[in-house]
Specification:
This protein is of the alpha/beta class. It folds into 3 domains: about 45 residues, lambda repressor-like DNA-binding domains (434 Repressor (Amino-terminal Domain), Orthogonal Bundle), CATH 1.10.260; about 100 residues, Response regulator (Rossmann fold); about 140 residues, Response regulator (Rossmann fold, 3-Layer(aba) Sandwich), CATH 3.40.50.2300. The protein is built from 12 helices and 12 strands. It comes from Terriglobus roseus (strain DSM 18391 / NRRL B-41598 / KBS 63).
Length: about 350
């Protein structure tokens, strides 16, 4: 009885391509194709060009996992973020992936949604896929879980703070500069009652932004009562609740600063819902400068913290362990949500008022 020949076709009837197919079509050895795929620098340039032309012609897709097993290199960098629904993070991921591709790496993304179990799942995936470095862009530390990555000798990079361990880098953000510019901008317009909507107190970045705000207001001689600080959560809903609180106090602020742009967008909605105008009744400033802020009406004045700059520093730090990454700067971007303070208390509705952006 004749033995059955093993099929080399897929379920759709197409011939399954492998490295041997490429080698035969290119007229080279399997070893040469392997070296070309792994970008070994000693391969003859003409041979390499021929192999890549054959790969393109055949539409061959390399099995990167198999290559990683053979070479011991996954050419994969991980990035862990906290909230994929916040537009700041997709912009950061795009910048990270662009930089990674430039240096021949792919990106594995994990989102924790501020959940410890999700963080554990992210770490497990990073280990299973043998990432060569992990950027922890959550603006906070989950040290017990990340100890697993550290124990494997995998380079990591954090924002603001990090465990003191080998192969761990920190990207420092200069929050003070942008927030100081924002407070000085409001003070120059004549604002003396300024409210602040913070982020989650567990996040170092949120606390750093609040402290920078309090330091900047003190520097220009503005006292900020505790009731003018609302402890939010970096969501649009939190920004909306913050405005409701700030408008309810006896002397509402004439200007509000938010710890991130999502809070500011929620604040814009709440201000409009209260029948007030921006900036005629209340001036508003966000933080991050996500792309959306340029297109809302009115365009949001905000503090730019470039996600692409953070991404570039993160990729550099992962590929150059032990070299301190460049500090990320912040700066004020003035658009149309800030103006001179109204002579009326926010919440009152006089018969007529000149728009502050025309004053």
């Amino acid at each position: 009885m004749a033995t059955r020949k093993r099929s080399t076709t897929t379920a759709k009837g197409k011939e399954r391509l492998d490295i041997r197919t490429v080698a035969t079509a290119a007229g080279v050895s399997v070893a040469t194709v392997s070296r070309v795929m792994n970008k070994v620098p000693t391969v003859d340039p003409q041979l390499s060009k021929r192999v890549w032309a054959t790969v393109k012609k055949l539409g061959y897709i390399p099995n990167t996992q198999a290559r990683a097993l053979v070479s011991g290199r996954s050419k994969l960098l991980g990035v862990i973020i906290s909230d994929i629904t916040n537009p700041f993070f997709p912009e950061l991921i795009q910048g990270f992936e662009d930089k990674a591709i430039d240096v021949g790496y792919e990106t594995l993304i994990g989102s924790t949604n501020y959940d410890l179990q999700r963080m554990e799942h992210c770490v497990q995936r990073m280990l299973e896929r043998q990432v060569e470095g992990v950027a922890v862009m959550t603006f906070g530390i989950e040290e017990p879980l990340l100890e697993r990555l550290s124990s494997e000798g995998i380079p990591m990079v954090f924002i603001d703070v990090a465990p003191r361990k080998k192969n761990i880098s920190v990207i420092h953000v200069n929050y003070d500069q942008g927030i100081r510019e924002a407070v000085q901008h409001l003070a120059a317009l004549g604002h003396r009652r300024i409210g602040f909507i913070t982020g989650p107190p567990r996040l170092h970045s949120a606390n750093a932004r609040l402290n920078a705000f309090l330091s900047a207001t003190e520097r220009v001689g503005i006292r900020v009562p505790e009731m003018c600080i609302f402890h939010g959560d970096h969501t649009a809903e939190g920004g909306s609740r913050g405005v409701e609180h700030l408008l309810s106090i006896k002397q509402p602020p004439t200007a509000i600063m938010c710890s991130n742009d999502m809070s500011a967008l929620g604040a814009m909605h709440a201000i409009s819902r209260a029948g007030l105008s921006i900036p005629a009744d209340i001036s508003l400033i966000g933080f991050d400068d996500i792309q959306l802020t340029e297109y809302v009406l009115p365009p949001l004045t905000t503090i730019r913290m470039s996600g692409r700059d953070i991404a570039a520093s993160a990729v550099y730090a992962l590929l150059n362990p032990g070299i301190a990454p460049k500090q990320v700067e912040t700066n004020l971007v003035v658009r149309q949500t800030t103006g001179v303070p109204s002579k009326q208390t926010p919440g009152s509705k006089p018969a007529a008022r000149k728009s502050a952006d025309k004053a």
